[in-house]
Write a structure and sequence with these properties.
By secondary structure, the chain is an alpha+beta fold. The chain is built from four helices and eight strands, in the order αααβββββαβββ. The strands form two sheets. A six-stranded antiparallel sheet has the order 1-6-2-3-4-5, sandwiched between helices. Strands 7-8 form a two-stranded antiparallel ribbon. It is globular, with a radius of gyration of 13 Å.
């Protein structure tokens, strides 16, 4: 599932389609093939920060180099504290993130850039998203 998510983000980055801005959770879930109603109580997560709060297998981490390949990475902050979510590449502290370089597309960027450009606080990574296990590679 993790490799598929990275491949899907890479494909969307190169070929589209362009998505709406500010729907990082929807885009990341789509890369993993996880439906919005995939969580245990059936109502989905409201935003990226909610997904972090509700993750059952989360790993707080502030060092991007220690985040494994293919897992969702979470930040806190932003407009109305919606946070942000991306997919870790597991290579030199990078991730596939939406909207950071081009609005509506995934781009590979340093995890640190989310803080530098948007002022968000890195929370860590999780082994689950919307109640579905996403194992690191």
């Amino acid at each position: 599932m993790s490799r598929k998510a990275i491949d899907n983000a890479r494909e969307q980055s190169g070929h589209g389609p362009k998505s709406d801005v500010g729907i990082c959770l929807v885009m990341v879930r789509t890369c993993y093939g996880i439906a919005a109603i995939g969580d245990v109580d059936g109502d989905g997560d409201a935003d990226a920060f909610d997904a972090w709060v509700r993750a059952k297998f989360k790993h707080p981490e502030t060092n991007p180099a220690r985040i494994p390949r293919g897992v969702p990475v979470f930040w806190q902050g932003g407009s109305a504290n919606h946070g942000h979510i991306a997919i870790a590449t597991g290579f030199n502290g990078n991730c596939w993130s939406t909207d950071i370089k081009r609005k509506g597309f995934f781009d590979r960027v340093p995890i640190k850039r989310i803080h530098d450009d948007w002022g968000l606080k890195l929370l860590g990574w999780a082994e689950d998203l919307n109640g579905v296990r996403v194992h690191p590679e």
